[in-house]
Specification:
Length: 418
């Protein structure tokens, strides 16, 4: 008698079932996204919230993840700089693997950073490799703008000139200043930079007609554009600053440029009765952007602090009204980027200096802009934006409290009467 069919086909069915389960497991594993490993071991915590912590030693996966500035990076990883965010990223290195994010992107000559698998092993670069520059390659355009050269000539010839041509030249320079090449060209022209600084500090310098923004605002926009993400341009301006700060902008001036630069952005110096509040606030925002760019240089940052710049910057937080939101956010970002947020390149420990002042002192007319009142005014703005944990004032309040060695709960208790 023949054996039962079920007994004949049982081994075959088991084999098929094993194959199906194995394939299903492989598909699930390949489809599952790479997740960051759970937090364990030595952690770095900049706040009291554990969800903000991260491991002291970077834990790689098969996908690129952000590397914090204070993390230890194991050797042998694939490391890259994300040009959109400016952040360093790393993952497990796979020899011969192509970066899918570069598909369709033209690649120019540059430098490759290799993290050796052995700490003492020096990477071997080809003898004809291009010279490495931390600023990247600055490419000259095929045909340089004629209007750009004409605008620089106007600035060198004289700070204030009547007529539309000068205002149109400033607009053209502002458009081009955001380009790395043209930004550096502006910074290299010391006479043009001095002219722009003098225009910027000339408080409410009117344009030829109402169709153009005031010239102090326009000059600040040009300088801010040239300095933004352009280390080479910043070095040029910073190296020339010792000469600029002792200069006077016009014959007969009693005040040197270095004495007015760090007060040029205060609201009181940008009030024009004939102009809308929105225009005044916009000018303040542009000028704070210039200061934010300049103090990326440690020499100018130290001078800014010595010149009582933080008290003057605090004045930007005093006006109320939606028109001032942009200028106040820019002032808050300056403090975070340069003094409190290490991930953004801040040099911790330089500021705040001194003790926090009381609520009564920060309400008094004579002391409300003291450096010790930053906590008070930031807390006021934070209270005006309830429920917005991502608001710049909330981040600044937390980091400022940490820098002073205090807990946010203490500050919130003291500022309930705001």
């Amino acid at each position: 008698m023949a054996p039962a069919p079920s007994r004949i086909t049982s081994p075959l069915r088991s084999l098929l079932l094993a194959v199906i389960l194995s394939a299903s497991s492989l598909i699930s594993a390949s489809a599952a996204p790479s997740r960051p490993p759970p937090l364990s071991g030595d952690l770095i915590c900049h706040t009291s919230n554990r969800s903000d912590c991260y491991p002291r030693e970077f834990q790689p996966t098969h996908e690129f993840r952000i590397v914090h500035d204070d993390q230890d990076l194991p050797p042998g990883l694939h490391v890259r700089l994300n040009m959109q965010t400016g952040r360093k990223e790393a993952k497990i290195n796979v020899p011969g693997e192509q970066d899918a994010s570069l598909d369709g992107v033209p690649v120019d000559t540059g430098a490759i950073v290799v993290h050796p698998s052995q700490p003492d092993q020096e990477p071997q670069l080809p003898k004809d490799a291009p010279r490495y520059s931390p600023d990247g390659k600055i490419k000259k355009p095929p045909h340089e703008s004629e209007s750009f050269a004409a605008g620089l000539t106007m600035l060198r010839d004289g700070v204030v000139r009547p007529g539309h041509a000068f205002d149109e030249a400033l607009v053209g320079l502002e458009d081009l200043s955001h380009d790395t090449y043209y930004g550096l060209r502006i910074a290299e022209d010391t006479e043009a930079v001095k002219a722009l600084l003098c225009l910027m500090t000339g408080h409410n310098t009117p344009a030829s007609t109402d169709t153009f923004v005031p010239r102090d605002h326009q000059a600040a926009s040009i300088l801010a554009g040239a300095l933004q993400n352009n280390p080479s341009a910043l070095r040029k301006v910073a190296n020339a600053w010792p000469r600029f700060k002792n200069d006077k902008c016009a014959k007969g001036d009693d005040v040197q440029l270095g004495q007015v630069l760090y007060s040029s952005f205060t609201p009181s110096n940008n009030v024009d009765a004939a102009a809308a509040v929105k225009q005044s606030a916009s000018s303040v925002k542009a000028k704070v952007s210039v200061i934010n760019g300049l103090i990326k240089d440690k020499r100018l940052r130290g001078e800014f602090l010595r010149q009582n710049g933080m008290s003057r910057l605090l004045e930007v937080l005093l006006p109320k009204g939606q028109e001032w939101d942009g200028a106040q956010r820019k002032a808050g970002q300056l403090v975070l980027d340069n003094f409190l947020d290490a991930d953004m390149g801040a040099q911790l420990g330089q500021w705040p200096r001194g003790s926090r002042l009381s609520v009564e002192q920060c309400k008094a007319q004579g002391t409300k802009t003291s450096e010790g009142c930053w906590d008070y005014h930031v807390a006021r703005i934070m209270k005006e934006n309830p429920g917005d944990d991502d608001h710049w004032s909330a981040d600044l309040a937390r980091r400022l409290a940490k820098a002073r060695g205090q807990e946010m709960l203490v500050l919130e208790e003291e500022h309930r009467e705001l």
